[in-house]
Amino acid sequence: MESESHSVFSRAEWARLRSSVPMMLSEAEVEALRGTNEPTSMDEVEEVFLPLTRLINLHVAASRGLARVTDDFVGRPSWPRPYIVAVAGSVAVGKSTVARLLRALLSRWPDHPKVDLVTTDGFLFPTRELEKRGLMGRKGFPESYDVKRMICFLSDMRATGRAVSPVYSHQAYDILAGEEHVVDRPDILIFEGLNVLQLGAGIEKAHAPVFTASDFFDISIYIDAEEQNIERWYLERFLLLQRTAFQNPASYFHHMASVPLEESEAFAMNLWSRINGPNLRENILPSRSRADVILHKRADHGVDWLKLRRL
Ligand SMILES: Nc1ncnc2c1ncn2[C@@H]1O[C@H](COP(=O)(O)OP(=O)(O)O)[C@@H](O)[C@H]1O
Ligand SMILES: CC(C)(COP(=O)(O)O)[C@@H](O)C(=O)NCCC(=O)O
Question: Which GO terms describe its molecular function (predicted)?
Fold first, then answer.
């Protein structure tokens, strides 16, 4: 299916599309943007992410031009609408590192300095509600999100450039009551989460979705890797978080802070095989072919090929 809808680029072919875009981040800045257990190199930024930001920069200019043409046509004042970039993929595939890198790189361009980032975990139902619905073992599945609220957020962004999102904490494993993320007329919004390309992520009317999240995106990027690698990254990250974040008594997983290795591995593998693995196979992977860009990672996290949608 993707062999017809997408063109494939080896990493070397893709790297050549960087053209003359200069390197915009120092080694220390790249270091600061790396995710837990993710070794992003300077080569990776230059060969994969600079060409990608160049493509997005060209798209932003083209979409602004298109919006201006329509505004002029109907005689209404034109305004700089936020350009929305979606980042999709499995739990633990490294979406947040990609999103943070894109944010840092895109904000260096003078024509779109204001780049904001929103993660879809803010639209998960709070723990209280998940428990009421018997969904604590289904976090990340379509039914665990307040999809209506997510679509309202995206349509507010499109209509006014302003919107408010709830905030999720991995430490609390819950939505933070009383906290919100106010997004105010960014040039670019990066919208990252495992469910962003799912058709089910929509408001239903008479059993047919009226809008799905994808209706609001200007470009979508899917981070892809083999499940056995993602599962290993999930396990390695869990063991690293156990030595760091879980040591904090405020962490939801603090009870795992000092359990023996074998027991921790079994605990993490159980989370993977009960929740994140099935969600990848049933809901996330089937949304991949709808992405404009598919970025494939090898076992060492490096990107080895990309696909660009042509249909
Ligand atoms: N239990 C946790 N405690 C603290 N941070 C976490 C926990 N689980 C995940 N994270 C962090 O949350 C971020 C998002 O993780 P995830 O949703 O798996 O997406 P991805 O790995 O694709 O970015 C990552 O930076 C990860 O390190
Ligand atoms: C919070 C998540 C659903 C990811 O949410 P996203 O930001 O992709 O919408 C995920 O990280 C998660 O917590 N999964 C539940 C199983 C687990 O603890 O790994």
Answer: ATP binding; pantothenate kinase activity
First to last CA, the chain: 11
pLDDT tens sequence across 159-175: 999 999 999 999 999 99
Best residue among 222, 241, 251, 301 to mutate for probing ligand 1's pocket (most ligand atoms within 8 Å of CB) is: 241
User: Does the beta carbon of 193 lie inside 6 Å of ligand 2?
Assistant: yes
Distance 84 CA to ligand 1 centre (A): 22
Residue (of 36, 38, 274) closest to 170 by Cα position: 36
d(CA 213, CA 217): 7
Measured between alpha carbons, how far is 146 from 90 in angstroms, rounded to an integer? 19
Tell me if 231 CB under 6 Å of ligand 2.
Answer: no
Sign of CA dihedral 272, 278, 283, 286: positive
Cβ pair 304, 298 in contact under 8 A: yes
Facing residues of 165 across strands? 181
Alpha carbons 71 and 309: distance in angstroms, whole number: 28
This prediction's pTM: 0.95
2-309 fold: Rossmann fold (3.40.50)
Q: For residues 203 and 152, give the distance between their C-alpha atoms in angstroms, rounded to a whole number.
A: 9
Q: What is the C-alpha to C-alpha distance for residues 145 and 135, in angstroms, rounded to an integer?
A: 10
User: Is the distance from CB of 189 to CB of 120 less than 8 angstroms?
Assistant: no
Distance from residue 226's CA to the centre of ligand 1 (Å): 18
CA 302 to chain centre: 17
b/e sequence 28-43, b meaning 16+ C-beta within 10 Å: eebeebbbbbbebeee
Q: pLDDT for 76-104, tens place per residue?
A: 999 989 999 999 999 999 999 999 999 99
224 lines ligand 2 (CB under 6 A): no
Q: SS3 sequence, 69-85?
A: HHHHHHCCCCCCCCEEE
Domain boundaries, the chain: 2-309
